[in-house]
């Protein structure tokens, strides 16, 4: 990622100040990402101690973002924390909302933001599963409400899923896609509202079978993690499922694969499990994770993960052939 180029492009979208509403894990990561791209950030969160936790999180993320490359003028000093939601969004060019995953809460929150934000300001939600059509239902200007779902952690992972609701304008979709692209994201336009959007549905499909295999005693938690992390997960980090299938077909590509493996794949689908999240299964998974962790600390794993992610993202960008 070239942060300098991203900053130059983001100014061309007209976005200079972003309001981040809700500064938990996802919101704080967004704040760090926006600051690293030379934007001014207004943040707000009603939780006690939210400002202190946010500033600590930004400081924690900053060394990684420095390794990515900061945009000209990028600084943690461009962060302003507001006690009032209305004050935070009143001068913002773009709003990134990260509140609790409750539709009643979102409807009221977007109603308030819509009443306080300038007329041309886009209101985007990070919601991981709720429909944007519901959130915009209480707004006087629903056409500017859009879903911009990141992948955790947003300050590292490029993906953002952009989805319009029933009343979102095509212009807002286009402007949202342009803004995210300008700050180094890889936005994709999800053309129809579905529960969990795209990436979470794909994850859920894998999780379902992983939990099923544990439930049936087929393999340990550690071995299932190893099967992905040291097998297909390595290829998936480079390119998606369809392109991987295409390459596995040699000169015949995807057509050859489907001709020869289409039947077996369909047979595997029929044999996949549908586990229930019982207390016993939860215990099995927790015990398995504890055993896999051993004496390692979660914080150390996060740091190692982030370093590898940074190197991978940088390497993919450098090739210019694995978009």
Question: Summarize this, please?
Answer:
This protein is α/β, with parallel strands linked by helices.
Assembly state here?
single chain
Structural class: alpha/beta
Our measurement of the CA-to-CA distance between the termini, rounded to an integer number of angstroms, reads: 12 Å
- Strands, total number: 8
* Estimated radius of gyration: 21 Å
| DSSP strand content | 5-15%
Which shape, going by the Cα principal axes?
A: globular
Order of secondary-structure elements:
HEHEHEHEHEHEEHEHHHHHHH
Biggest sheet: strand arrangement? 3-2-1-4-5-6-7-8
Please state the average pLDDT score: 93
The helical percent reads: 40-55%
Low-confidence stretches: 1-5
Number of H/I helices: 14
The major pleated sheet works out as:
8 strands, mixed
What does this protein structure show overall?
- The chain is an alpha/beta fold.
- The protein has 14 helices and eight strands.
- It has an eight-stranded mixed beta sheet with strand order 3-2-1-4-5-6-7-8, sandwiched between helices.
- α1 (3-12) packs antiparallel against α7 (170-182).
- The longest helix has 22 residues, at 298-319.
- The radius of gyration is 21 Å and the shape is globular.
- The model is unreliable at 1-5 (pLDDT under 50).
Annotation keywords:
323 residues, alpha/beta, eight-stranded mixed β-sheet, 53% helix
Protein topology:
Blueprint: H1 3-12, E1 17-21, H2 25-36, E2 40-44, H3 50-68, E3 79-82, H4 85-89, E4 94-97, H5 103-116, E5 122-125, H6 132-135, E6 145-150, E7 159-164, H7 170-182, E8 186-189, H8 199-215, H9 221-229, H10 232-236, H11 241-248, H12 253-271, H13 279-293, H14 298-319
Parallel strand pairs: 1-2, 1-4, 2-3, 4-5, 5-6, 7-8
Antiparallel strand pairs: 6-7
């Amino acid at each position: 990622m070239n942060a300098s180029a991203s900053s130059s492009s983001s100014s061309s979208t007209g976005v200079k100040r972003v309001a981040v509403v809700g500064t938990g894990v996802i919101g704080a990561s967004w704040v760090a990402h926006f600051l690293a791209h030379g934007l001014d950030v207004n943040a707000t969160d009603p939780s006690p101690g939210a400002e202190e936790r946010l500033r600590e999180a930004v400081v924690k993320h900053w060394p990684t973002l420095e390794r990515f490359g900061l945009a000209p003028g990028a600084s943690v000093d461009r962060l302003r924390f507001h006690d009032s939601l209305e004050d935070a969004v009143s001068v913002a060019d773009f709003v990134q909302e990260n509140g609790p995953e409750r539709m009643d809460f979102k409807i009221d929150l977007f109603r308030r933001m819509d009443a306080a934000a300038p007329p041309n300001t886009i209101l985007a939600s990070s919601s991981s599963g709720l429909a944007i059509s519901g959130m915009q239902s209480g707004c006087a200007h629903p056409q500017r409400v859009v879903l911009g779902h990141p992948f955790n952690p947003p300050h590292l992972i490029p993906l953002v899923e952009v989805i319009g609701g029933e009343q979102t304008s095509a212009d807002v979709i286009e402007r949202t896609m342009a803004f995210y692209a300008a700050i180094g994201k890889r936005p994709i336009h999800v053309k129809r509202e579905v529960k969990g959007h795209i990436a979470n549905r794909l994850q859920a499909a894998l999780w379902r079978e992983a939990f099923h295999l544990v439930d049936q005693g087929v393999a340990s938690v550690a071995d299932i993690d190893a099967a992905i992390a040291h097998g297909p997960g390595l290829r998936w980090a480079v390119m998606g499922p369809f392109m991987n299938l295409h390459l596995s077909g040699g000169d015949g590509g995807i057509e050859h694969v489907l001709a020869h493996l289409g039947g077996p794949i369909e047979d595997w689908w029929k044999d996949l499990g549908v586990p229930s999240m019982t207390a016993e299964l939860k215990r099995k998974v927790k015990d398995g994770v504890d055993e896999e962790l051993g004496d390692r600390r979660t914080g150390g794993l996060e740091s190692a993960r982030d370093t590898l992610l940074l190197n991978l993202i940088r390497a993919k960008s450098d090739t210019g052939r694995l978009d």
